[in-house]
Design a protein that fits this description.
This protein is mainly alpha-helical and 624 residues long. The chain has three domains: 384 residues, Up-down Bundle (Na+/H+ antiporter like fold), CATH 1.20.1530; 108 residues, 3-Layer(aba) Sandwich (Rossmann fold), CATH 3.40.50; 113 residues, no CATH class. Helix content is 70%, strand content 4%. A six-stranded parallel beta sheet has the order 3-2-1-4-5-6, with helices on both faces. Helix 19 links the parallel strand 2 and strand 3. Helix 8 packs across helix 9, helix 16 packs antiparallel against helix 17 and helix 23 packs antiparallel against helix 24. The longest helix is centred in the middle third of the chain and has 33 residues. It is elongated and about 95 Å long.
Length: 624
């Protein structure tokens, strides 16, 4: 192995070890620590790494490749469908309006319209790596601004496919390889042929994922060798990246597509667990590499132009994002966080500008300038987020608190309760009163602290994390009570538990009938609607107060619940067709009423004095 590569890698890792803890200590986040570390060890300051450090840069870019693969794995079609309005609405507005405004700006600066349009498209991208990492560190992923940020980033990642396919149509010359770069299949092809080749490569990745990769993983899984499965996961990522590189596409884009294809496979969670450790360290190296790649000589050569471009791009994107957030009905503080988070230019811009330069759309000088603008905007983002968090949010809104680390779980019981709110705590108290202990998990640190003061042994932790479930004893437990208040998170927990711990009996909380139907579609059969039993119990008490015997009312209530649960299974397949669903509901209501009437006729005890007219008359007279 090249000694220069080893020395650079050693310096990069040392910079991470030194600067990231300092940045975290003063509340700036790990991303800014990586970027500052890269600037300090780069050629402009200490000069520990120079131009020959590009090998490490290419190696570090693999972290972005892994991150996009993991994002693709998390993108289940059903989850995408639920978020479709948010993704399409916010994403289309952000990219479309940003591109138009930047197109006008660059036309004013004297760019040709193809160059202005290409720059506008590239600069409309935001950094998935920085934004998701920062939101995750600060515990903001599940906030409204976090969900909106994810929606926009997801739309941007998907949009790279048509953008790369359309760029050759703007070129007046075929693709030329950069110096020192390997030739690609796109060289010398006319624009229309390049577009078809790019679309063909995308189709190839999708087809390979569906018809080759899943059977391959099934074969590897039968061997029951964990290290071989990890090697296979890395092989899939590297092979996909290599294929996309050969045809001139972004390797990160290819692995993102591969992840999307595998999102519904039974090996999704295993792939996530195997690749996540590699992603973290390589992503850190990528941020350091961005810091070292900033050309300060170019910046100092014309600092006003560079800084004006950086500020102009950030301001344009901030204003468009603020309008987008406003239309998405985000509160002021959430919209502020959303707008600041995505105002930078993203890592895909490096890929797009490189391709734009190869196509001859933009000159080499302007390409280097745009690369510098991209790197500086990424470097400025953690500082802008820090200003927003320390100065703006305390003044204009409530700051989201940072989540604490998960507890170490040292007790294992046959029952695991995930979510200890009103529903979960009732189940836990009932079990404990009957001598059955449970391992309790909750992700609300304030509630955990309060419950501990009340005498409950509750562990703080995200039950959807596989390592948390394993540490809670899911391998040995018999029952998992899924009682998390957010339906999507609760469904994610159950899906992971079914895939990784098939021996567990899952007993699920559902708020209403629609959620219960969704759980039935996922194969969950033990469903408990929290409103059903309480509503029926109130109805039973109402019957008693109206003169029914308590035994008769209780029996009728039990029968009603049994018939209603059976009806739920029959109604679930019809709920996507509104007219058919309404007709089926009316039939089930009539059927339930007839069954309950028959029960009263068959069992005289239920019908004896069911309606006592004397009691009712006396009741109304007393009230009168």
């Amino acid at each position: 192995m090249n000694s220069t590569f080893l020395n650079d890698a050693l310096v990069y890792l040392a910079a991470a070890i030194v600067f990231v803890p300092i940045a975290k200590r003063i509340g700036m986040g790990s991303v800014l620590g990586y970027l500052i570390g890269g600037i300090i060890i780069g050629p402009f300051f200490l000069g520990f790494v120079g131009g020959e450090g590009k090998d490490v840069m290419h190696f570090a870019e693999f972290g972005v490749v892994l991150m996009l693969f993991l994002i693709g794995l998390e993108l289940e079609p059903s989850h995408f469908w639920r978020m479709r309005h948010l993704i399409l609405g916010t994403g289309t507005l952000q990219i479309g309006l940003t591109t138009l405004l930047l197109l006008a700006l660059f036309l004013i600066l004297g760019f040709s319209w193809p160059a202005a349009l290409a720059c506008g498209l590239a600069l409309s991208m935001s950094s998935t790596a920085i934004v998701l990492q920062t939101l995750r560190e600060k515990g903001l992923s599940q906030t409204q601004s976090g969900k909106s940020s994810f929606a926009v980033l997801l739309f941007q990642d998907i949009s790279v496919i048509p953008i790369l396919a359309a760029l050759p149509l703007l070129a007046f010359s075929p693709v030329q390889p950069g110096s020192g770069e390997h030739a690609t299949f796109l060289e010398g092809l006319p624009g229309w042929a390049q577009t078809l080749a790019l679309l063909g490569a995308v189709a190839l990745v999708i087809a390979a994922g569906r018809f080759f990769i899943v059977p391959f993983l099934r074969f590897v899984a039968r061997l029951r060798l964990q290290e071989l499965f990890t090697a296979s996961a890395l092989f899939i990522v590297i092979a996909t990246a290599s294929i996309m590189t050969l045809v001139g596409l972004s390797p990160a884009l290819g692995t993102f597509l591969a992840g999307v294809v595998l999102a519904n496979s039974e090996y999704r969670h295993e792939l996530e667990s195997d690749i996540a450790p590699f992603k973290g360290i390589l992503l850190g190296l990528f941020f350091i590499s961005v810091g070292t790649s900033i050309n300060f000589n170019l910046i100092l050569g014309d600092p006003l132009k560079i800084m004006a471009l950086v500020c102009g791009v950030i301001i344009v994107k901030f204003l468009v994002l603020a309008l987008t957030g406003r239309l998405a009905r985000l509160s002021f503080d959430q919209n502020l966080l959303f707008s600041v988070s995505l105002a930078q230019v993203g890592e895909f811009a490096f890929v797009l500008f490189s391709f734009i330069s190869q196509l001859g759309i933009l000159s080499v000088e302007w390409t280097d300038t745009m690369m510098g603008v991209t790197a500086l905007s990424m470097t400025a983002t953690p500082l802008l987020l820090l200003i927003n968090e320390r100065v703006l949010l305390p003044r204009f809104g409530t700051r989201e608190k940072v989540e604490t680390t998960a507890d170490e779980i040292d007790l294992h019981y046959p029952v695991i309760i995930a979510g200890f709110g009103g529903f979960g705590s009732t189940v836990g108290r009932f079990l404990r009163a009957n001598g059955v202990q449970a391992t309790i998990l909750d992700n609300d640190s304030d509630r955990v602290e309060l419950l501990r003061k009340m005498g409950f042994k509750v562990f703080y932790g995200d039950a959807t994390r596989i390592d948390i479930l394993k540490s809670a004893g899911a391998d040995q437990a018999r029952i998992l009570v899924a009682a998390i208040g957010t339906p999507d998170i609760n469904a994610d927990l159950m899906q992971k538990a079914r895939n990784l711990f098939p021996h567990l009996t899952i007993m699920a909380r559902a708020e209403h009938t629609t959620e219960a139907c969704d759980l039935l579609d996922r194969g969950i059969n033990d469903i408990y609607r929290e409103t059903l039993d309480t509503s029926v119990r109130l109805g039973v008490d109402a019957l008693v107060k109206l003169g029914f015997r308590r035994y008769s009312a209780l029996r009728s209530g039990q029968n009603f619940i049994r018939y209603d649960e059976a009806a739920l299974c029959r109604l679930a397949p019809h709920r996507h067709d509104e007219s058919d669903y309404i007709y089926s509901v009316r039939e089930e209501i009539e059927n339930q009423e007839q069954l309950l009437t028959s029960d009263r006729e068959i069992n005289p005890a239920m019908n004896d004095h069911a309606w006592d007219s004397d009691i009712l008359r006396d009741e109304f007279q007393n009230r009168g």
